[in-house]
Structures are given as C-alpha cells and as structure tokens.
Amino acid sequence: MCGYLNKILNAKVYDVAVETELQHAKNLSKLLNNTVLLKREDTQPVFSFKIRGAYNAMAHLPKDSLERGVVACSAGNHAQGVALSAKILGCRAVICMPLATPSIKVNAVREHGGETVEVRLFGNNYDEAAAEAKRLEREEGLAMIHPFDDENVIAGQGTIGLEILKKCVSQNVDAIFVCCGGGGMLAGIATYVKQVRPKIKVYGVEAADAAGMTASLEAGKVVTLPSVGLFADGAAVKTIGTNTFSLCEKYVDGMMTVSTDQICNAIKLAYNDALNLFPSNNLKHSRVVLEPAGALAVAGMKKYIEQNNIIGSTFVVITSGANMDFNRLRVVSERADDSERSLQITIPETPGSFREMYSKIWPRNVTEFSYRFETHHEANVMVSFQPLPNTENDFEHVMEELNQSNFACCDISNNELAKTHIRHLAGGRSGCAHERLFRFHFPEAPGALKKFLESLNMKWNVSLFHYRNYGDDFGRVLVGIQQTQGDHCEGMNRFLQELGYQYIEETDNPAYAKFLRSNPVNEGQFDNKAGS
Predict the structure, then answer these.
(1) In the chain, what is the greatest distance between 2 CA atoms, to the nearest angstrom?
(2) Which is the catalytic residue, given 7, 12, 39, 50?
C-alpha cells in the first residue's frame, strides 16, 4: 500500500486541476454545533473532482499509447474530465455515451474537449455504451481510462486527502466524509489520510438505493447490485472496483447511506455556505447548487452527527460536484425541507370541521392541504406542515391534540408512496351535487392561509380544497363549493365579490370534468366568472 502513497505524492494533477479551498461552512457549523469545513471540489475547471484522476491516468500513459488515443465511457463528470485532459495533452479521445444522454451533458463534453475529442452516442444504456468503448479499446488499441478502478485514477483523487492534511497541519480534524460511487475518491483519500494521520476517521457516503460499497464491505467481497437508483447519478454504480474495494476494506472506517430526501436537504444546506470562489468573474458572493452526488458527503455528515449526538467536533466534507441537471431542481425543492411533516387526518363531514381541524395545527406553517368530499359522513385530508422549532416533540403533540378532538390521524411523513404520488392525487373524483370550482390567489405571508379559511365562513359546503406552498409570493388555492340546490348563482357570486380575494371560476374547465368529477358537469351549467 506504500506504493499508493508514493503515487499520490507524485500525481500529475496540477497541470489542469486546482488546489481547491477548504472553506469554513459558517451556517452548517452553527446549525450542527460542530465545525464543518467544505473541501470545494465543485470549483474545479469541470466542476467536479473527476478531472484529477482522469488527467493523472492519461499523463502517466506511455507516449505511444497517448499518440493512439484514449477511450472512456461515461455520461457524466468523468467524461468531462477525460475530454479536458485530452485537449490539454493534445491527444485523441473517444467518449462513449448512451443515446439518451441529456444534450446538456453531451455539449459540456464537446466544449471541454474541442477538436481532438469525439463524442460517440451508442446504445440504449450504460452497459451498451461501455461495450462499444471496450470494442474500441480492443480493435483500435485505444487506452481505456476507467472512471474509478485504476491505480493512477485513485492516486489522482487521493491528492484531495493530501491537500486537506496540508491545510490542517495545526488543526484537529475528527473525520472526513467522502462521496462514494465506484470508490475511487474514497479509496484515494482514505489511503493517504490513514497512512499520514491515522487517527482521523474516514467515512464513505452512498445513496441508499446505490450502496454498492456498503454491500460489498458487508459481504467481504465485491458484489454487483441488481439495480441502482439514478437520483444521485454521479455515484450510481452497480459494481464497485476491485482495487477500490481492497483499499476501502483496509482503510475506510465506515459507510453511511442516505435517502433522496436527505440528499435534497443537504443540497439546500450547502447552498447557504457554498459560495462561488472565482473573484475574477465578479461572482464571489453568488451561491453554488451542488448536484445530488456532490452533496452526498454533506448528507452523510449530518446524519452521522444527529445519530451520535456529536457536539464540538471538526469535520471535513468533500463537495464533489456541481454539474446539476436543471430538471432536478423541482425534485430538490419539493423534498429538501426536512422539517416538513405530513399527516392523513379523518374529519367528520360537518360544517366547520375543516376550520376546527386547522385550528389544532395553527400557528405552525402549513405547506400543503388536500381535501375532497367523499361521503356525507367523513372525509380524508392530507396535511403537511412544519412543527414549531425548538419545541420538543411538537409534531407528536399536534397528533395527540387532533386525536383527542376526534380527528383520527396517521403519520405519513416517511411514506414514499404518499410523498411521491398520493400528494398529487389525493381526493380524486367526486359526484357531489351542485359543485362550483374556483381558483383563489392571496398574498403569501404568515397567517395568510388562516385568514383565508376564516373568510370562508359561509352557508355553503366546501367540497374540495387544495393548497401547496411553493415559496411563491402568492398563495394559490383550489376550492370546490356546493351551491345549495335551488339557490341562485347571484347569491354566491355576491359572496365571492365581497370576499376580497382574486378568483377565477373553473367550473366549466374540461380538466375539472375529466379528472375531478365522477359524473359529467353539464356544459354551461354556470357562467364562468372571474373577480377580485
């Protein structure tokens, strides 16, 4: 293993990679009551640590191999690292990527590589693209640049550990948390750190649905996962490396796995601390959004601290990448708030019960309400809210008060079906008679939803209610109101005008008839009106 130490000390990475900052995360440190240092690998020229290993592997190739060129298979950060390395070394590179690779990633590889790099889109998945890369290696003699299971790639990533210890010569470090996919970075950092300062703990962090290193270390051998989740796609590997496994088995102190929600929360938390560190582009004080794999170590550290009730320690976290796919931002925003809790509540279908139920939750910030008339006896409501901060067992107290008030409730905060699907489908169709549908807008502010609910103190029954706080400046509520049979529209219309909220009637909207009604609404039953 001393050979790896020598390889790390002599790695050729700084022709292209930069020695990244070890940044004090003030907000994370305050939140977690520990000193947190971010090793900012997301600020590399390709916004990922992968450039270190790719360049070191290519720079160590024999001259004749470099002249023939290299080949790699990757749909992510490794591809960009190989492309930029090929441009700097002036060699040919073929990057094999699946046909379905997003164009933003294909274009990024082309931009980093220039004229010497060919992007070859091949196959319907990673395995088929990898088979094409192996064919090029075999038939054209191109040198394969493996994303993690190569000694020089591991050594290149190990320079991160070297830099951390160099910056912390006179500073205590209790543990280092490292993202793990195939294990190259984890193996490299652990190998260096444990041989130079063995008292520092090194932990790997994997997505719970792509925990190949965790499974392999538990089994005592390399295992292939039957499938992997793709949310943290930069670390989604079915089979880890044999070299990385041997090193991690020897040097890594433990593994952590984190959920998608924990990753999203880590992206949010890191956003408050991860500043752009390039003063030359006048963006020094802008924020950086880490990609899911890039935030794995932050999520793992937070989980470790909370599970072990640690205070006053010093932790280093590798923020390993910031090549965020824009389409992922919706998911991150939706699931980043780890303070949000959700309940399924059964309420009697009687006038005033909806407002009474809400009074048991107030003054907590409600983030979502979903209700639909079901029977004349009772209704099921889905509610999400944020328990009061610094109040022990506040969520449990709310549940207790609801149950004591005959509002039977069930905690669905960790129900994946509810969070991913049911929250968007809750309620569904209803055949309630004489229903009119309205969209309301009101300025979003503390207490705004409570004020709106209180204003609906009327003689008509609310048969549908949906509200979701998306952080916008205006709250948007969908409300169904049953107009009493024989009542004239003018009575309700006058009430709506006097209500004082901007509204749009959607009773004649075909989407309402198709998806929220169990029987067709007669066209022209009501005049479509809008008011404010």
Answers:
(1) 90
(2) 50
